[in-house]
Amino acid sequence: MKIYIIGAGPGDPDLITVKGLKLLEEADVVMYADSLVNEELIQRSKSGAEIVKTAGMHLEEMVDYMVLRAQEGKKVVRVHTGDPAVYGAIMEQIALLKKQNIEVEIIPGVSSVFASAARVGAELTIPDLTQTVILTRAEGRTPVPKYEKLRDLASHQCTIALFLSATLTKKIVREFIEAGWSEKTPVAVVYKATWPDEKIVRTTLENLDEDMQKNGIRKQAMILAGWALGEDIHDKDYRSKLYDKAFTHGFRKGVLET
């Protein structure tokens, strides 16, 4: 018996993987987080498939339902928003499924962090500027491990992507400033990346809280911070070695200027 956990992508129904869509179209039972996954995607399920909304279900209820249907010989898919590997809450489901001897296969999806970067036209790793991206969230009602406090992570001065943090912007700004960030550091906020009602806000660290309040963004937002997000980044001469004509690698011999 096997259950499939599928990453649906950030919102645009066309951003699911080919493999994920194929499984969705074959499934007898489709369980999905109806508060986050686009209904247009779920409509691509096959005729007669059992569609189960899970926003109102608790963990054990969801798992018991999946197990029951799998034991009946049904092909069950569980559809998650974005990519299940990041804030997907899948490990707790898998742990319970394994106790029932249910195999799980995970199909990756497009994360909202990369969809957001695409929508603002950003490369998050710029040669000679930053080569590291930290994916994290600000500490709110749910604590973070003591070695992952936002101020400590921000001390690396690299690109930071903040999930689940739209209501904690004052805290974000304070901890970034305490970590030595400039108030002028560029920030891009993408609300509901790739959805029809997507909203993009370009701002700076010092204006982040005010601009998010002004735009009414209090949930479903990806916050990207760092100098790689500067709107003038394309005017600067940051170049990788990969395409440098003087750089030799396994597929090309470098050409030195004379």
From TrEMBL:
Every Tetrapyrrole methylase domain range: 2-208
Metabolic or biological pathway: Cofactor biosynthesis; adenosylcobalamin biosynthesis
Keyword Transmembrane found: no
CDD domains: Precorrin-4_C11-MT (cd11641)
Gene3D superfamilies in the cross-refs: Cobalt-precorrin-4 Transmethylase, Domain 1, Methyltransferase, Cobalt-precorrin-4 Transmethylase, Domain 2
Keywords assigned: Cobalamin biosynthesis, Methyltransferase, S-adenosyl-L-methionine, Transferase
Keyword Transferase: yes
Protein origin, superkingdom: Bacteria
Pfam family, one: TP_methylase
GO molecular function: precorrin-4 C11-methyltransferase activity
InterPro entries, per the entry: 4pyrrol_Mease, 4pyrrol_Methylase_sf, 4pyrrole_Mease_sub1, 4pyrrole_Mease_sub2, Cbl_synth_CobM/CibF, Siro_Cobalamin_biosynth, Uropor_MeTrfase_CS
GO BP terms in the entry: cobalamin biosynthetic process; methylation
Family note: Belongs to the precorrin methyltransferase family.
Protein name: Precorrin-4 C11-methyltransferase
Native source organism of the sequence: Schinkia azotoformans LMG 9581
Lineage: Bacteria, Bacillati, Bacillota, Bacilli, Bacillales
